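Hi L., both proteins are below.
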Amino acid sequence: MSPQPEEIGAKVKKTSERLNAHLLQQARGSNDLQYLASPVTGGGVQVNRFQQLFLLAQRQGHKQPADWTAATRQLRQSQGQRLLKEGKPNESAEENLAELTQQAETFASSSCRFCGRWGGVALNRTARSARAASS
């Protein structure tokens, strides 16, 4: 998908941000929506539920992937949900934590470039700095 003219992107940026904030809240209880709005392209950017929950945690002030993991883990535990690996639920809390941590770290290492390019929900500077320092 190619970018739309900058003046159009600028006009729809606030609307896209409000829509994305709503969609991120929806991800708390549902896996139904797999896209966020991009003011750059005028379309959607695919972002899975865990990525949405990590972005939501970031918007709530959690700055590092470990913080996103903790917030997401707490939400999932309160809902009685476990992660699946190879189609089977992880049995132990340690397995769930390890899988969620891996997903948060993978998202942190790739989302800055991705979200920045398409104008989705950008990764905050603290997380980018932490990721760069660990590289």
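That was the first. Here is the second:
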Amino acid sequence: MQTSFTLSTHGQGLYEFTRDVAAWVRSGDDPRSGLLTLFIRHTSASLVIQENADPEVRTDLSAFFQRLVPPATDATMGYLKHTLEGPDDMPAHIKAALLPVSLSIPVLDGHMRLGTWQGIYLFEHRDAPKRRDVIAHLSR
């Protein structure tokens, strides 16, 4: 079983879409069980499972990755060659190389087996608004 989710972003940051995925997993007459795979079809964004209770976690994660991989205009990034698409593009590719582009989540009786404080996030690494596609596949 497969579907896709399209998420609109408005710049760098984490965008939770746990409820959308949970609704799809629960849909249908037969309670679904198996392994859910989520895959993002982009090279400048990632998927992560992270705390969904305190928004400061998302703020701190974004700030950390901004410091870890600053824009190409930062003096420490002078070695970058791929800069034609803007100062945030190559750093976005580096962040996507460091973070997962797919997730695996067990599903039992129509419920994802996430922990109490876990949520599913698209981690946008570009500055400009984007439309991102995430493919969901549930294997039984």
